[in-house]
Amino acid sequence: MRHHFRVGHPIHRLPDQAGTSTSVLTVEDALGAVQSALVLGGTSEIALAVIDRLAADRCRRVVLAARDTAGAAAAAEHLRAAGVETTDVIEFDAADISRHPALIETVFAEHGDFDLVLLAFGVLGDQATFDRDPVAAANAVTVNYVGAVSTGLSVAQELRRQGHGTLVVLSSVAAERPRKTNFVYGSSKAGLDAFAQGLGDALEGTGAHVLVVRPGFVKTRMTAGLPPQPFSTTPAAVADAVVQGLARKRHTVWAPPILRWVFALLRHLPRPLWRLISAR
Ligand SMILES: NC(=O)c1ccc[n+]([C@@H]2O[C@H](COP(=O)([O-])OP(=O)(O)OC[C@H]3O[C@@H](n4cnc5c(N)ncnc54)[C@H](OP(=O)(O)O)[C@@H]3O)[C@@H](O)[C@H]2O)c1
């Protein structure tokens, strides 16, 4: 079935096993398991690994908001095979910031409450290209940071209204200390990370929660062709860390966890030493 949002974004809705596609209001069950999720950046390999993990538990309703709706529809098929009963795909561009408030409001109005919203969109880019093309650099920052602010605040309004739910934000260890080889990306993640921490504190006591995730180098299409960094990990391992963080109501998780201690040291290294070791 296909229908349209009030804001004009097409939806691909895949029917559940009974052949219906109703929107249901759900909340976390008695054990706190996630039953419904909205993914912003619905083709992200890390995000899909998280939903896969949650589907093995009790996640049964998922909306994938993506720029590449065909790719997201293929991912939705996979999620259904993994146990998700109702999947929807909606068109979403993280750079189209003026549309975000209406888009988020409509998704919640039409699909019901969400236990989890996963903010997973992002672009890595290439520092040498950014050096030559400042507009490309600013566009990447718009996606990684500005688009996260407009969607994150819109989601926060809905979670406050619900009185429950977690916003999971895919930050990065790159937020901890800028490297000369990818400082545009790092600065955008630093902004995102600070925003997500502040939002989490602002939501304290409302029933809504923010989980900041700081992965290191994850082997996905984003990093394809790049030399692996120390402590490289996989989307499945990041998903495990996220699911564990959700169960423990953490405000921050690192993936792998050892990076927390590695960066506790690295962020205090003298600049000349940091310049040297962060150059690769
Ligand atoms: N891989 C790593 O090493 C790593 C490490 C730390 C943090 N992260 C962060 O984790 C998140 C997910 O990354 P990933 O590794 O899963 O890579 P990925 O598979 O390439 O996912 C990135 C996602 O961002 C989406 N996106 C990019 N620009 C967009 C836009 N303008 N509008 C809507 N969606 C857009 C992509 O959509 P399209 O399919 O349309 O391109 C894709 O779904 C990102 O925020 C990334 O910065 C990744």
* Sheet/helix structural class: alpha/beta
- In the CATH hierarchy, the architecture is 3-Layer(aba) Sandwich
- List bound small molecules: NADP nicotinamide-adenine-dinucleotide phosphate
Order of helices and strands: EEEHEHEHEHHEHEHEHH
CATH class: Alpha Beta
Count of extended strands:
9
- The CATH superfamily is NAD(P)-binding Rossmann-like Domain
The percent range for helix content is 40-55%
Helix and strand layout, with pairings?
Elements: E1 2-4, E2 10-14, E3 36-40, H1 45-56, E4 61-66, H2 69-81, E5 86-91, H3 100-111, E6 116-119, H4 127-132, H5 134-162, E7 165-170, H6 183-203, E8 208-215, H7 235-247, E9 252-255, H8 259-266, H9 271-277
Parallel strand pairs: 3-4, 3-6, 4-5, 6-7, 7-8, 8-9
Antiparallel strand pairs: 1-2, 2-5
Helix pairs in contact: 1-7, 3-5, 5-6
This protein binds NADP nicotinamide-adenine-dinucleotide phosphate.
